[in-house]
UniProtKB/TrEMBL annotation:
Organism this protein belongs to: Pseudodesulfovibrio profundus
Positions with biased composition (Polar residues): 161-175
Keyword annotations of the record: Signal
Name of the protein in its database record: Uncharacterized protein
Signal peptide: 1-23
Region (Disordered) residue spans: 152-175
Keyword Signal: yes
């Protein structure tokens, strides 16, 4: 009976951990946020933190000069939290909750350490798709600009249409 309880407990732990640890679908955002979290944890500038590689889904490796030598840090970006752990410095381990805004595709992290407190949030956004960029360009234009573009398109279409009609109405010449 005791083995059954242990098995059930272990199974429940695995299921709960797996469901909450779903990877995000925005790798570019994960890399940016990982760099910022490592920099904040070590009181460094994000420019001093180097992205090394993607270890596996939602787990990334960074390197930074820390404690008089190059050090590596693992950052796991999950659905609701970020996990930071030093490869050489196991004592540097943090679990940081964050919020992801679906509309803007941006992650917002409130994280600072006592040694170098900051009031600023970490914000990292995913790269926009080509379609989203076109939408942004459209909505950033003023109404007169949009009307001018429509007029130019109509003039071009009007110029091309008569040329096609002229060739259709002429009789074919025989040689």
């Amino acid at each position: 009976m005791r083995h059954c309880r242990i098995f059930i407990f272990a199974l429940m732990t695995v299921v709960i951990t797996a469901s909450s640890a779903m990877a995000t679908e925005f790798m570019d955002m994960d890399i940016k946020i990982g760099r910022e979290v490592v920099a904040n944890a070590l009181c460094k500038s994000p420019a001093e933190v180097n992205y090394v590689t993607k270890v596996r889904d939602n787990l990334y490796l960074y390197s930074v000069f820390y404690a008089k030598k190059e050090s590596h840090f693992f950052v796991g970006v999950y659905k609701d939290f970020i996990r930071l752990q030093g490869k050489e410095f196991k004592t540097i381990t943090r679990t940081i909750p964050y919020k992801f805004d679906e509309a803007t595709k941006c992650a917002v992290v409130q994280f600072s350490v006592p040694d170098c407190p900051t009031d600023a949030n970490i914000v990292a956004c995913s790269e926009k798709t080509l379609e989203e960029k076109k939408d942004d360009e459209f909505w950033d234009k003023s109404i007169p600009e949009l009307l001018e573009e429509d007029l130019e398109k109509a003039i071009k279409a009007g110029q091309e249409e008569p040329q096609q009609n002229d060739t259709e109405g002429q009789p074919e010449t025989q040689q």
